[in-house]
UniProtKB/TrEMBL annotation, chain B:
Family per similarity comment: Belongs to the binding-protein-dependent transport system permease family. LivHM subfamily.
Organism ancestry: Bacteria, Bacillati, Actinomycetota, Actinomycetes, Kitasatosporales
Entry keywords, A to Z: Amino-acid transport, Cell inner membrane, Cell membrane, Membrane, Transmembrane, Transmembrane helix, Transport
Protein's UniProt keywords contain Cell inner membrane: yes
Protein name: Branched-chain amino acid ABC transporter permease
Highest rank taxon of the organism: Bacteria
UniProt topology in membrane: Multi-pass membrane protein
Transmembrane portions of the chain: 12-32, 39-57, 63-85, 97-120, 149-167, 195-215, 221-239, 246-267, 279-295
Cellular localization per UniProt: Cell membrane
Keyword Membrane: yes
Length: 238, 309
């Protein structure tokens, strides 16, 4: 069986500077795969390339058996690849509900969209309570919930989450991680980028450690969580 | 002072025309952060598009039949030029430093003026624009000139169409998303290149309606008409809060009323009798612009720039 997402020797450059220097990994349907590493490792660049916002300088990206290299960003979501970007990027002057509707921009099955909006409110009740409020007035954690809910509105085959815990309070971070665990239990395939290695690896079936544009270590979530070099570098132990 | 209601109505109608043109500045700015200084000339070509249709029609055609066809002609010409400008002049500069598209816009503006001057028959001096017959219309002690009747209908209708489009249609929601965060709009599946073309086209279409209103109001059009009117409309857009489509119309109305009242009443202030004539109207309009830029740079309905982050 081929994997849902296959990344092979992917290279991405900003001008002459190569930010991703030939990485390969796969995501199987139903898996949670995480990319961890410090700032500047190339994690966000990788996700932005997968969703078409950046163009690869080399290598292959296959999603559901199709090459994504020449597909423009606005068509990639319709193939089933949704991206909740780093920094959340909700539409601040729109209501929460309109933000969710934009997540379903390319769908025209009205009953299905309404049903998925209710599902998003079930997953994040606070969003339902504030559905008519401008999204820019939400707290960081609530905005993160909205960004995730919005990404789910396209009914993706693969959900990409970029730093969902960034800048959140410990309690809010736990909440977000619990939601990711819940999505995993429902069978959602997730590619998770995180700086919080502990939380990400506890959830992940597989993890890849990135350093300055390359993958330096790969393994199952539990393996990496117990790997000595990972513990030293990313979990703050000496 | 019983002429005050009359002056307010005059100002409102003038302002509605500014507002129709201002929509184009504000829509394009809201989406690509470009001041399309050629927009005044796109407005001007719309007027010549309408005149061309009129000249094609057999003599003696009534204005009630001709006017819709002239509007269509104006819209087609203005939209074609705006979309062409976007595709061939602005899109190649999308990622260039901001000065490049700005200078391109000024160049395009001069090129369009000269093209009409050189190639449109007898456009080296003003050309008469056909007029609606009947009127003027009296409502109480306010008179609405025949040429302004078109604005009374066209301005609210245009705003209603625009409001419906932006708020209720899928493309309109895609446009709002693109204005707020273009990269994220792409992630939602919005074809932002297409949205940019639509913004240029819609802005040009409303400017074309404004151009027909101009021709009916003043009775003649010329190749330079887009310069001052474009500046006024740009002022209206800044006044209302650039990027905000309702702000464009409100800014237009505020500008039109302020300019009209200044022309009518400033001469009554002791010592100001020199500054009240029609030739000072433009000065007062730009004084208002300077005051807004000093005291409320985000405009009447504008958001502070920090909100965009």
């Amino acid at each position: 069986m081929t994997a849902l997402l296959e990344v092979e020797d992917l290279r991405v450059a900003y001008g002459k500077i190569e930010a991703v220097k030939g990485i390969s990994f796969t995501v199987e349907a139903g898996q949670v795969v995480t990319l961890i590493g410090t700032n500047g490792a190339g994690k966000t660049t990788t996700l932005r390339t997968l969703s078409g916002l950046l163009r690869p300088a080399g290598g292959q990206i296959r999603f559901n058996g199709r090459s994504l290299k020449k597909i423009p960003a606005h068509q990639i979501v319709s193939l089933g690849l949704a991206h909740s970007p780093e920094g959340r990027h909700i539409f601040p002057r729109m209501t929460i509900e309109d933000n969710l509707r934009l997540g379903a921009f390319l769908r025209s099955d009205k009953p299905g969209i309404e049903q998925d909006i209710r599902r998003a409110y079930d997953l994040f009740p606070i969003l339902g309570e504030r559905r008519k409020q401008a999204a820019g007035t939400l707290s960081g954690g609530e905005q993160q919930m909205l960004a995730m809910g919005r990404a789910l509105m396209s009914r993706p085959k693969l959900l990409m989450l970029d730093e969902p815990s960034m800048g959140l309070s410990p309690i809010m971070m736990q909440k977000i991680m619990a939601t990711i665990a819940e999505l995993k239990a429902q069978g959602t395939t997730i590619l998770l980028v995180e700086q919080n290695a502990q939380a990400a690896l506890s959830l992940a079936d597989r993890g890849h450690v990135m350093e300055i544009g390359t993958i330096v270590l790969s393994g199952t979530g539990p393996d990496l969580l117990h790997d000595e070099s990972v513990r030293k570098a990313y979990l703050g132990e000496d | 002072m019983n002429e005050l209601p009359q002056q307010l109505v005059n100002g409102l109608l003038l302002g509605a025309m500014y507002g129709l043109v201002a929509i184009g500045y504000t829509m394009v700015y809201g989406i690509v952060q470009l001041i399309n200084f050629a927009h005044g000339e796109i407005f001007m070509t719309g007027a010549f598009g309408a005149l061309t249709v009129w000249l094609w029609l057999p003599g003696g055609t009534t204005m009630w039949l001709a006017l819709p066809l002239m509007i269509i002609g104006a819209v087609i010409v203005a939209v074609a030029i705006a979309v062409g400008a976007e595709r061939f002049a602005y899109r190649p500069l999308r990622n260039a430093p901001r000065l490049a598209p700005l200078i391109t816009a000024i160049g395009l503006s001069l090129a369009l003026q000269q093209a009409v001057w050189a190639w449109y028959p007898e456009a080296k001096s003003a050309r008469t624009f056909p007029q609606i017959s009947g009127g003027p219309f009296e409502i109480g002690n306010v008179t609405i000139q025949t040429g302004d009747i078109f604005l009374v209908a066209a301005a609210p209708l245009s705003m209603a169409v625009l409001g419906y489009f932006v708020l209720k249609t899928r493309t309109g929601r895609g446009m709002q998303a693109t204005a707020q965060d273009p990269d994220t709009a792409k992630l939602m599946g919005v074809n932002t290149d297409r949205i940019i073309v639509i913004a240029f086209a819609l802005g040009a279409a409303f400017a074309a309606v404004g151009a027909v209103a101009y021709g009916l109001k003043y009775g003649e059009i010329n190749f330079r008409m887009g310069f001052i009117l474009g500046l006024k409309a740009f002022t209206a857009a800044v006044l209302g809060g650039i990027g905000n489509i309702y702000g464009a119309m409100i800014g237009g109305v505020v500008l039109g009323v302020a300019e009209t009242l200044a022309t009518a009443y400033i001469a009554d202030i002791p010592g100001m009798d020199k500054f009240g004539s029609q030739s000072w109207a433009d000065v007062w309009a730009f004084v208002l612009l300077i005051l807004v830029l000093l005291f409320r740079p985000q405009g009447l309905l504008g958001e502070r720039v920090a909100d965009r982050a």
